Amino acid sequence: MKKYRFFSVALLCALAFCSCAVTSNVTSYGVFINTIKEVSQDLQEEGFSLVSTENDRRNVTTHAPEYYNHFEHGFSGNNSIDYIYTNTYHFENEEGEKMTYSVSYQTGGNPSTLTAYVREVYTGGCQTSNAKDYERLCGDSSPIHKLDSLPKNSTIRR
């Protein structure tokens, strides 16, 4: 009986002092921006200069999981409005050939530490005006794919 009571009390204490927060590994916003600059520099070395950028923001309604912290994200209730940002970068070389790619991403922030982070990043929409340039600029070994494998250098609690 004492053994049962001891394990019951130990289990109750363990449950009471366990945190319900979930941690996630994310990419800091600074690393994301530096990688965008690095991709532009790599494309510059390939002979393509950045000529313009388009920015778009799309609302996405998401169902907030039970561990959702409305103080951290600024929304209350079971649903929240989230944003997916898409930036499209237009490049051109001296011969007038064009290259375009897009990167879509979701951000977050922690107001208590004043840090911003990137949760998910997707590249896509890569196009070249000259088919011979496609594999080099848009293929699997293209500089733009650095954005698909960003390091998860920050940890957040949700």
Task: Give an overview of the whole structure.
Mean pLDDT is 79; it is low at 73-80. Helix content is 28%, strand content 42%. A 6-stranded antiparallel sheet has the order 2-3-4-5-1-6. It has 4 helices and 6 strands. It is elongated, with a radius of gyration of 22 Å.
Summarize the amount of helix as a percent range.
Answer: 25-40%
Q: Assess the beta-strand content as a share of residues.
A: 35-45%
Low-confidence stretches: 73-80
Spatial order of the strands forming the largest sheet: 2-3-4-5-1-6
Shape: elongated
Major sheet description: 6 strands, antiparallel
> What's the helix-strand series?
HEHEHEEEHE
Distance between the termini: 39 Å
Average the pLDDT over all residues and give the rounded result: 79
Number of strands: 6
Number of helices: 4
